[in-house]
Structure formats: C-alpha cells, structure tokens
C-alpha cells in the first residue's frame, strides 16, 4: 500500500478529505485557549466545518458525544478547565491535543501527560513542544531540550518515540511539517514563514486536523498530513496578495475557503519520508 503513496495519491487524498469536510461539516468541540477561540473557529468555518466552544463540565455529557471530533488545547490552561478537558477526552469521540508551551510549568506538563494517556488521535506541536513532551513522557529519553534550536531531525526521532509510546499520531509543525505514527513518517512542506508572525496559526492548523479526523476518522495520519499541507497551501496563496501578517491572515482564510480541486491537487506537497 505504501508503495502506492505517490505525490499524486496524496494530492487526491488531500482533495478527498477537504471535500469530506465540506460535505459533512463535522461538529468540532474546542476546549481551547483564550487567544485562538475566534481565530481557529473562523479557520474551521472557512474550511466547511462547524466549531463549538464549550468548556463547562456539566455540559460535556450531553454535548460531547454528539460531536464528530474534540479539540483540546492547553494554551491558557487553568485548574478549572482541566476536569472538562479530561471529560471531553474520555467521551469516546476522536480527539486531538495541542500541547502549547508544554514545558512552561510543571502543572502544564503534568496535565499534558495525563491527557496523553487518554489516547488522542493526533498530537500537533511545534518542535520545542514535541521535544519537551517526548522528554517528559519517557524517562529513558535522551531528548531533554525544549528550545527550537534543535533540528527537525532530532524532533522527528522524538516524535517517533512519542507516537510509539502514546499510540497517537504525532505532528511536528514548522518550515517542514513531519507526521508520524511511530513507523511511517510523512512530510508536508507547504506554508510560508510569515505564518509564524500570526498568533494562533498552530491552533488553527490543529483545528483543521480535528475537522479532517471528524469528517473521516479512518486514518489520523492521512488527516494530519493533508490538513497541514492544505493549511500551508492556503498560506502560500494568501501570501501572493499579503502585505504583512494581518493581510496574510485575511487572504489565507479566503484562500482556504476558495480552494478548488485543481489548486489542491497541483499544490499540496506531501511525501513519504520513511
Ligand atoms: N518557516 C515556515 N515556513 C513555512 N510554514 C511554516 C513555517 N513556520 C510555521 N509554518 C506553518 O505555520 C503553521 C503553524 O506552525 P507553527 O508555527 O510550528 O505552530 P505554533 O504556532 O504552534 O508554534 C503550520 O501550518 C506550519 O506548517
Ligand atoms: C500566545 C498564546 N498564549 C497562550 S495561548 C497562545 C496562542 C498560541 O498559539 P500558537 O500555538 O498557534 O502559536
Ligand atoms: Mg502552538
């Protein structure tokens, strides 16, 4: 099967998954940080999904089982919200974790590790976050660093170990995105550097991953790789008209909304690395 996974196969897969999001409009519950609530909700609606921000513990038993996917992000973690995160992650729906600044405090790292045990389908973080999580989740790991001066090859090895120990697909975002289930490694190389100058683009891209998983839960590795490539492609198209971060966000959103088959199939850059 892997031998058939050519660039053309990935291009068709990316278009099929974006089309599934548009057709099924998956309901994505987000328990997320206060910075990205609006930003990533708009990315979801532009892509065709249906976002809902609910974080009250008493609402979760009624609401979460009806969702297609759950998104949990610890960016502005509080003790009050952690029980809701636990409950939503345990509700039997496919869910994704964004371990924002995982190493910022002991409480945050412990919370991320506790959530990791609840079997997210996908964890997506930047290089520093994945290195930190891998180091803390495996006492025998040699990956102790948390700063982004680590090269992506080192993060890749840490991501593979973390995927094997957690059972989650691990996505490391950056100039080149890596996605692994602990065995296969996929790269997605769309995107522009200016995306780092817009706050919460990481939160937005994992929201898109949640929508892809919700629309088609059959393969979280494919969902993560295709969502990252499509978000990056929207960034590339947006950059053609942008003057800076603010107009890039506007044009990226317009591009995400307007992506057609020809643009997706000729524009996504996804490859099997290993
Ligand atoms: N230098 C870069 N070149 C191209 N795309 C990038 C670059 N840096 C980040 N991206 C893209 O921006 C999005 C957010 O990734 P990242 O900046 O790693 O997340 P975070 O905001 O959580 O730190 C991803 O889609 C990623 O592919
Ligand atoms: C700035 C900030 N502070 C707490 S959460 C947050 C947003 C983080 O967004 P991203 O991980 O996409 O950079
Ligand atoms: Mg982030």
From TrEMBL:
Highest taxon in the source lineage: Eukaryota
GO biological process, one term: thiamine salvage
One GO MF term attached to the UniProt entry: magnesium ion binding
Cofactor: Mg(2+)
A Pfam family: HK
Alphabetized UniProt keyword annotations: ATP-binding, Kinase, Magnesium, Metal-binding, Nucleotide-binding, Thiamine biosynthesis, Transferase
Pathway(s) it belongs to: Cofactor biosynthesis; thiamine diphosphate biosynthesis; 4-methyl-5-(2-phosphoethyl)-thiazole from 5-(2-hydroxyethyl)-4-methylthiazole: step 1/1
Xref: InterPro entries: Hyethyz_kinase, Ribokinase-like
Catalytic activity: 5-(2-hydroxyethyl)-4-methylthiazole + ATP = 4-methyl-5-(2-phosphooxyethyl)-thiazole + ADP + H(+)
Enzyme Commission number(s): 2.7.1.50
The family this protein is said to belong to: Belongs to the Thz kinase family.
Function of the molecule: Thiazole kinase involved in thiamine salvage pathway.
Protein name: Hydroxyethylthiazole kinase
Biological source species: Triticum turgidum subsp. durum (Durum wheat)
């Amino acid at each position: 099967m892997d031998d058939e996974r050519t660039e053309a196969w990935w291009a068709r897969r990316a278009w099929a998954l974006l089309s599934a999001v548009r057709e099924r409009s998956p309901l994505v519950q987000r328990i997320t940080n206060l910075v990205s609530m609006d930003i990533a909700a708009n990315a979801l609606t532009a892509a065709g999904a249906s976002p809902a921000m609910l974080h009250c513990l008493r609402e979760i038993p009624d609401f979460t089982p009806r969702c297609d996917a759950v998104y949990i992000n610890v960016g502005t973690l509080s003790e009050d919200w952690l029980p809701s995160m636990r409950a939503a992650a345990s509700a039997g729906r496919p869910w994704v974790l964004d371990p924002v600044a995982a190493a910022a405090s002991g409480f945050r790292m412990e919370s991320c590790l506790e959530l990791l045990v609840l079997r997210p389908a996908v964890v997506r973080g930047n290089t520093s976050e994945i290195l930190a999580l891998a180091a803390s989740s495996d006492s025998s790991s040699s990956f102790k660093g948390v700063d982004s001066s680590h090269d992506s090859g080192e993060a890749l090895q840490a991501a593979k170990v973390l995927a094997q120990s957690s059972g989650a697909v691990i996505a490391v975002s950056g100039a080149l995105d890596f996605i692994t289930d602990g065995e296969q490694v996929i790269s997605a190389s769309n995107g522009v550097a200016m995306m780092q100058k817009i706050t919460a683009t990481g939160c937005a891209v994992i929201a898109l991953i949640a929508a892809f998983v919700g629309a088609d839960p059959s393969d979280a590795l494919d969902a993560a790789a295709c969502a990252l490539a499509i978000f990056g492609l929207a960034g590339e198209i947006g950059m053609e008209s942008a003057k800076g971060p603010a107009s890039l966000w506007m044009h990226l959103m317009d591009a995400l909304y307007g992506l057609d088959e020809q643009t997706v199939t000729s524009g996504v850059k996804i490859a099997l690395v290993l």
